[in-house]
Structures are given as C-alpha cells and as structure tokens.
Amino acid sequence: MSLIDVENLTLQFRTDEGLITAVDDVSFSLEPGEIMGLVGESGSGKSVTAKSLMRLNPDNAVYGPKSRIILNLDSGPVDVLKLRPGRGMQIVRGGAISMIFQEPMASFAPAITIGDQMVEQLLLHRKVANEKEATTISIEMLERVGISDASKRFGQYAFELSGGMRQRAMIAMALSTRPKLLIADEPTTALDVTIQAQVIDLMKDLVADFGMGIVFITHDLGVIAQTADRVAVMYLGRLVETGTVRQVIKTPAHPYTKGLLNALPKLDNLSAELTPVPGDIPSPLERPSGCVFNTRCSVSLGTPCQTRIPDYSYVGEGHEAACLLLEEEAVKA
C-alpha cells in the first residue's frame, strides 16, 4: 500500500488581480522506503505542492473540487483536505508527515533552545510519556544525524550552530516523531559540497532504517541523480515528466527536462558550452494557454501547442511525459 496518493491536485490563490493557479491537476503516489525527487525551476510550484500535503498554504489558498490527498495511516486512509483544523491536522503535521524547510535558521525559534523545541514537539504529538523521555529521544536523534556532543547542542540556540549543524538539527527534529513521510524542501541548497554529500547520505540511510518515504524538492538534477528513486519534473504548476531517475536522466522525453539537463556542466567535457533553457518562467498572472511550456519550447508545434493541453504519453515502463510531439510520434508509429 502506498504512503500517500495525490489525485488531481489543483490549487489557486485569491489575489486582488483574481485567482492565480499555482498547481494544476497534479497526481502522484509515494511508496514506503521510496525517495521521489520533485524538480523544476524556482516558481514552478514545487514548494506549494509539498506544503499542500500538510495544508500549510495561506488562507487565500483554494483547492480544486476534484483534489484529493489520501494519506494511508495505520488506522486507515484519510483525505488530508477534508480534515478539520485542530487535532485532525495535528495528527498529520509533525506526526504522520514532517517537513525540512529550506532555511533552518528561519525555521527554529531564535529565543528557544533547539532541545526545548524538540521536546515540545514530542509532547505535543503525544509520542512520549513525559519530558524526561522526550529529552532522551531528542538527544539520541541529534546523535543519529551525526551531531557531535549532542547533549551540549541540545541546550544551545540555533544561532550558535553552523549552517550544516542547523540543517542536521532540523532533520533530527523532523524525524524525532518517526513520521511516515518526510518532505525535504531544498535541504542542501545552503550547504557546502562536503556537508551536502553527508546530508544526502544521511537521508538515504534514514529511509533504509525507518522505512519512511521522502519527497525531495530541488532545482538541482545532479542532487536528484544521487538521491532519488523516481523523479517528477514540474513546470508552472504541472508535472511534465515522471519516471525513474535513470529513465529521466538517461532518456529524457520532454523538451523542458532536456533543457534542464543541457544546462548542467558535463563532467566528461568541462569546456563544453552550457545551453540554458531560453526565456524566463512566466508569471502565474500570465499563464500560457495550452501546453504551459510552449512559450519557451524550441520544438513547439505552434497553434496546437498553444491551444491543447497535452495528455501523458507512454515513454517506457513507469515513464511518462506530457508533450504533443510524443502524441504525434505515437500516432505515426
């Protein structure tokens, strides 16, 4: 049984200019012990999608009528979008699902010690009997993520820790409640290369140890190649390609995925010129009709791409991409 099933997720925000579409008809599932990479440029809807799993988006968010987020708990499946505020969502937020945010310095309360925040979370979610047990578990988890002298760090504030140590503390806090699903939103962006590699190895070890699932959000396909089992490529709120890491990186099918890969340095030819994706991602207020990528696509078919939303075409076992060129190739074949 899957950990979570996202079905037809559509999310809009009410603004003074009208409704803005941030996520458009997104569907995916995540299995226990699986890491799914969610990839795309800034503004593509990755973080908004992830926050929807915990309903952390602001009050002006409007979910589509067909949207469903089915979380399979030990007690049975629940639709997160139908849970009432309060105890219902408390079971999900920090309990069944935990999140590592992009910047741990902004996520920890600056005037409260790391340890007090970890203990409070464990007590809030009723994972322990008392504060003493919560303290023991918190220190053990800090040690588990590789923080030296964990008892001392437990009593320190976030500003007293280095960037890499803060990130590890954030991971420890997220994992202390033993969630079924971990959302990692750009967890390595602010880290140097050495610490980045250590964090990636740590997360892979934790998946193996705890059997949890991870949604790993990043704009870096190089990180995804080292980390994820499956990849979902997102552009302007839509998933344009999904498949295993090997399928998407070795045989990309969507022009946007190819563009992202062409923009990466080639380790076997460092002198090769990089080819960036042309243009900029459009504002949500100027969302293109038809295929959302048609304004930047070098192989656009013109009017068809501007007027038709492409269906997902079969590329290989478990590998799909939404492109009219693939539909035409399938018809010819």
Give a description of the structure.
With 333 residues, the chain is of the alpha/beta class. It has 2 domains: 4-96 and 179-332, Rossmann fold (3-Layer(aba) Sandwich); 104-178, no CATH class. Helices cover 34% and strands 24% of the residues. It has 13 helices and 13 strands. The protein has helices at residues 46-52, 87-92, 104-107, 114-124, 131-144, 150-154, 163-175, 193-210, 221-227, 245-250, 255-262, 303-307, 324-332, and strands spanning 4-15, 18-30, 35-39, 61-63, 68-73, 76-79, 97-100, 181-185, 213-218, 230-235, 238-244, 312-316, 319-322. The strands form 2 sheets. The protein has an 8-stranded mixed sheet, sandwiched between helices. Strand 12 and strand 13 (319-322) form a beta hairpin. The longest helix is centred in the middle third of the chain and has 18 residues, at 193-210. It is globular.
Topology diagram in text:
Layout: E1 4-15, E2 18-30, E3 35-39, H1 46-52, E4 61-63, E5 68-73, E6 76-79, H2 87-92, E7 97-100, H3 104-107, H4 114-124, H5 131-144, H6 150-154, H7 163-175, E8 181-185, H8 193-210, E9 213-218, H9 221-227, E10 230-235, E11 238-244, H10 245-250, H11 255-262, H12 303-307, E12 312-316, E13 319-322, H13 324-332
Parallel strand pairs: 3-9, 3-10, 7-8, 8-9
Antiparallel strand pairs: 1-2, 1-4, 1-5, 5-6, 10-11, 11-13, 12-13
Helix pairs in contact: 4-5, 5-7
